[in-house]
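Hi U.,

Before I forget, here's the chain from the pilot set. I'm dumping it here mostly so it's searchable later in email.
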Amino acid sequence: MGLYLQQEGKIYFGLHVSDRALVTCLVGSQAVHLVDAADGGYALAAKQIKQQILEE
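Structure:
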């Protein structure tokens, strides 16, 4: 379904594969866990998303 929505221009996504991960846990009234690749996963995936938007 994700590929179908991407082809229609309804969603964008980026993917970065890494052999290392960082986990950040924020604890307040609720716990939030963020997982990122140790070598810049969010930033590299964001570059893919920006490229998809530019190619529209």
